[in-house]
Every structure is written in structure tokens, then in C-alpha cells.
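Query structure, 103 C-alpha cells:
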């Protein structure tokens, strides 16, 4: 069975990830990422992590790989996404709505 990219944690990284898992203020996604990495460091495969957390093995593998490549900073937030570029800028919206804005 393929376990995915091996993860080894320093004591400081493990403490930080455990702090994130216990946090009452972090969003659910940040806590899930920390759990993924902790389970990966404990030797679980992506399928096992997925079953335990109710996510797909692909998602578990992606966060495992991102942590392996960039550490804690890599799982801190989402990557920028593409999307439709705004057709009108904020100044034009203020002008059209009659809201006075002074920069």
C-alpha cells in the first residue's frame, strides 16, 4: 500500500500542529490540515487519513505533499485561485452608487 510522501516532524512542529488542532479560534480547514499532517507523521496512508477525517485521499495527499515541500507555512492558507477579473474598479462603483469615498 502506498502511504504517500513520508512526513517527519520536529518537536516544535508537532507541538504547533497539536496546538492548531486544539484551537477554538482557527477555522475548520486549518484544523483539518493540521490533523492530516499529524496523522501522516504517525504513518497513516492517504486512504486511512481520508476515512478517519471524512475527506478524500486526494485531498489528504495534497496537504501532505504541501507540508513536505514547505512546512507549516505551506499549510497556513489556501493558494490563490484564478477567477474572473473584475470589470469595474472600486472607484467606479463608488461613483455609480453615489457613495462618497475619500482616499
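Result returned for the query:
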Amino acid at each position: 500500500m502506498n502511504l504517500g510522501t513520508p512526513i517527519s516532524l520536529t518537536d516544535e512542529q508537532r507541538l504547533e500542529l497539536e496546538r492548531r488542532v486544539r484551537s477554538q479560534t482557527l477555522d475548520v480547514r486549518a484544523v483539518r490540515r493540521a490533523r492530516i499532517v499529524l496523522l501522516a507523521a504517525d504513518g497513516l496512508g492517504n486512504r486511512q487519513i481520508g476515512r478517519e477525517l471524512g475527506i478524500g485521499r486526494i485531498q489528504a495527499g495534497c496537504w501532505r505533499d504541501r507540508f513536505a515541500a514547505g512546512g507549516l507555512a505551506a499549510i497556513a492558507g489556501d493558494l490563490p485561485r484564478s477567477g474572473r477579473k473584475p470589470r469595474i474598479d472600486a472607484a467606479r462603483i463608488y461613483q455609480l452608487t453615489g457613495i462618497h469615498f475619500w482616499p
